[in-house]
Amino acid sequence: MTGTDLYLQDTRAARRLRRLFTVERLGVFDRRPAATIWRIIERRGAVIEELRKLDDLRRSTFPSRSIELDRALRELAEEVSRASDDAGGRLEQIREDLRLRGGERVSSGIRGDADGRLLGRS
């Protein structure tokens, strides 16, 4: 296998992985059956492993990188960062929903002391 072949495979794997993160971030999973979601997550794991192996092979054989590979890896890193931010936001929303369902309510006023007497409305 030549260096060009390795760069090309590495670049394609990085782009496939970016697309999988993009699909998730855009909410394509929202209305899919759980089994489908798990298959896509497993596929993403397989692509990550493929990318890791290709990167190890490329680094051991050809230590320099191509401009196209650098671009693909940069785009992947940006998409992973966006997906992480979105997942954090969804997690906070789920926490809030669970908190409210668990009996906590939004405060309706200012209460004083331990007796819970209403002192004023906010």
Characterization of the model:
Helix 1 (3-25) packs antiparallel against helix 2 (34-61) and helix 1 (3-25) packs parallel to helix 3 (67-101). The protein has one domain. The longest helix is centred in the last third of the chain and has 35 residues, at 67-101. The chain has a two-stranded antiparallel ribbon. The chain has helices at residues 3-25, 34-61, 67-101, and strands at residues 110-112, 117-120. It contains three helices and two strands; from the N terminus they run H-H-H-E-E. 70% of the residues lie in helices and 6% in strands. A hairpin with a 4-residue loop joins strand 1 (110-112) and strand 2. The chain has 122 residues and is mainly alpha-helical.
Number of domains: 1
What is the string of helix and strand elements?
Answer: HHHEE
What share of the residues lie within helices? over 70%
Low-confidence stretches: none
Radius of gyration from CA coordinates: 23 Å
Instruction: Return the average pLDDT rounded to an integer.
Output: 83
Task: Tell me the number of helical segments per DSSP (H or I, 4 or more residues long).
Answer: 3
Notable characteristics:
122 residues; mainly alpha; two-stranded antiparallel ribbon
Topology:
Layout: H1 3-25, H2 34-61, H3 67-101, E1 110-112, E2 117-120
Antiparallel strand pairs: 1-2
Helix pairs in contact: 1-2, 1-3
Brief overview:
This protein has 122 residues and is mainly alpha-helical. The protein has helices spanning 3-25, 34-61, 67-101, and strands at residues 110-112, 117-120.
